[in-house]
Specification:
Blueprint: H1 8-16, H2 19-30, H3 35-64, H4 67-77, H5 81-89, H6 92-115, H7 123-148
Helix pairs in contact: 2-3, 2-7, 3-4, 3-5, 3-6, 3-7, 5-6, 6-7
Protein name: DUF3429 domain-containing protein
Keywords: Membrane, Transmembrane, Transmembrane helix
InterPro entries: DUF3429
Length: about 150
């Protein structure tokens, strides 16, 4: 597996996808009365992005894999949706921790996709940055809630 240069458009759009999560973390710090609402927004966005990665894996499986490998990858592709859905049902701190850990759990599958030549050669370099960033941001949100205590609007 080589870390080929990431196409500029993929890098820019991938990094832009971090903006909502960074904004949520900033809002939690700047608007303490809205901390829980901001956390809920962060959980919802994280769940969407986690499911999006599963959808990307599905697309890779449909386009590049064949036979048993395709079936295995299609099955793996639906897995990110489960912790995403569960995070929406949990209280904020466990939901954020679950998402943070789930983003880290994506890394072995992304590495394997690149190593087996199913994903573009730059795939893992990009996914590693984005998954680690999303994990860190979600865990930081959880930590912020734990350290600052809950706050309610009004």
């Amino acid at each position: 597996m080589t870390d080929a240069p990431i196409p500029a458009a993929a890098l820019r759009l991938g990094l832009a996808g971090l903006i909502p999560t960074v904004a949520v973390l900033a809002a939690m710090g700047m608007l303490p009365g809205w901390r829980l609402l901001a956390a809920g927004i962060g959980i919802a966005y994280g769940a969407v992005i986690l499911s999006f990665v599963g959808g990307a894996w599905w697309g890779i499986a449909a386009a590049r894999a064949e036979g048993t490998a395709q079936g295995r990858l299609l099955a793996i592709a639906v897995l990110p949706s489960f912790p995403a859905w569960l995070a929406l049902l949990l209280p904020p701190v466990p939901g954020l921790v679950l998402l943070g850990l789930a983003f880290l759990a994506l890394l072995p599958a992304d590495a394997r996709l690149a190593r087996e030549g199913l994903a573009p050669p730059w795939w893992f370099a990009l996914r590693r940055v984005l998954s680690v960033a999303m994990a860190a941001l979600h865990l930081a949100m959880a930590g912020w809630l734990v350290l600052s205590g809950p706050a309610f609007p009004g």
